[in-house]
Amino acid sequence: MSQTAHKLAVAGAVTPYLIPKHGFYAAKDGRGATVLPDDLPLRRRLAGGWLETCLRVRLCLKGFWRGLTQGLGVIGVGRLYISVIRANGRIEHLGLVSTQVITDAGVAFLVDDWDSDAQDITTLHFHGCGTGTNAEAVGDTALQTESTTALNPDSTRATGTESQPAANQLRTVGTLTFDATAAVTEHGIFSQAATGGGTLWDRSVFSAINVGSGDSIQFTYTCTVSSGG
Questions:
Q1: Separation CA 72–CA 107 (nearest Å)
Q2: 189 burial class (0-12, 13-18, 19+ CB within 10 angstroms)?
Q3: pLDDT digit string (tens) for 68-82?
Q4: What is the pTM of this model?
Q5: CA distance 103 to 176
């Protein structure tokens, strides 16, 4: 089924639209399989398929190496999907854009919450974006160059809407709106709404998305946690 935003047109007026709060990328059969929009371009499907293949190879190698050298496994992996909603209501689905990287700070945040309730993991649902291009690293604690005044409202991250596509998945969907031009290249999940602080759970870097005043980007982030050992 095609998933698009509902549009209401009024003669002589800017076209308003309703953005699905649970995202354009839904789950099928309760198993967490991602359903891609029908109008996702072929090149985006191929790019997303390549990212998914690289992720699975990386997980295989990383899991083997961690198990052999440290007695550890791979417990969680994040996937970031993006859709751009232009000021005129046109929707551009980009599909899967990144599969990296949960940070050391994010893992420490989770453990602190589990250990002594010193943190609250339910706060890890704020979406920030920026224009930095440095590669993701587990030591990241912030976006390289987080967007502030280009956002509407200024310096405010999007509050995500949570859902569970499957029993072992947490999905958060946040939409950021712009009132200035920007070339968005990075995204992060944070523990606070205001830019410039909070714990960074996951950072993603991707090809530049050029936006202007009135444009929005909807970020769909899914974290899959594995069981077994």
A1: 14
A2: buried
A3: 565 545 578 899 999
A4: 0.82
A5: 22
